[in-house]
Amino acid sequence: MKVKTILVSQPEPKMENSPYARLIDKEKVKVDFRPFIHVEGVDAKSVRQQKIDLSQFTAVILTSRNAVDHYFRLAEEMRFKVPDSMKYFCQSEAVAYYLQKYVVYRKRKIYVGKMNFADLVPLFKKYKEEKYLLPSSDVLKPTVPETLDQLQLDWKRGVFYKTVISDLSDLSDVLYDVLVFFSPSGIESLLKNFPEFKQNNTRIAVFGNSTIKAATDAGLRIDIKAPTPETPSMTMALQKYISTENKK
Predict the structure, then answer these.
(1) 8-state DSSP, 37
(2) How far apart are CA 215 and CA 174, in angstroms?
(3) Could you tell me if 177 and 153 are in contact, meaning their C-beta atoms sit under 8 angstroms apart?
(4) What is the pLDDT of residues 126-183, one digit of tens each?
(5) pLDDT in the model for residue 107
(6) What whole-number distance in Å separates Cα of residue 93 and Cα of residue 96?
(7) Do 43 and 192 meet the contact criterion of CB atoms below 8 Å apart?
(8) How far is CA 74 from CA 10, 53, 57, 111, in A?
(9) CA-based Rg of the chain, rounded to a whole angstrom?
(10) Which domains are assigned to the chain?
(11) How do beta strands 37-41 and 203-207 pair?
(12) Is the Cβ–Cβ distance between 221 and 200 less than 8 Å?
């Protein structure tokens, strides 16, 4: 069956010439964006209940832009002036670049991984004496605490924000040829918002092993998967599928 409409369960990319824009132009499909989940920050009281004193840490591990925003939001809320001596361990260049929104970029205090959390291991080994704070969501990949524990670091996790299911009730009468998911939470949101959801001819596209598992466990038929060696990005996987199906 041909693909004419796609719903991506994420915010619309801000960049003008995004891969989705190129997909729309090339395949003449309609692509809508709607976050199925969103992030809500916790308050200072919740952080104190976790027995976290921001002044006790010498380094912060930042795995996402959300972690950056909510660390500095809570520092302000708790009247903690982040010292210039604080070290920042950023999972990727994108997170490190975003950090400049809050701090003057000094390379000697900002340590950057390539992309995956494991890329930070050599840096953690080099700075084993630091006291690390990990600001995170209520949902955290188990590999993160496992890695930090294996290195025997002095670290503490703080739940600074939560992943919340968005209200999608206004989408109840909207049908799309393809639904695109990037996290297990997105799948959970679909089923919470639409408990009577029947897949029928709707194609499901998923990114990442954890999302594949969540979709499979939910009894959904997966038609498009990424990343693969041939299609490392979701837009490439969509492009390949659509170009094949729309020729039939």
Answers:
(1) E
(2) 20
(3) no
(4) 999 999 999 999 988 889 999 999 999 999 999 999 999 999 998 877 789 999 999 9
(5) 59
(6) 5
(7) no
(8) 25, 11, 14, 22
(9) 20
(10) 5-36+168-245 (3.40.50.10090), 40-163 (3.40.50.10090)
(11) unpaired
(12) no
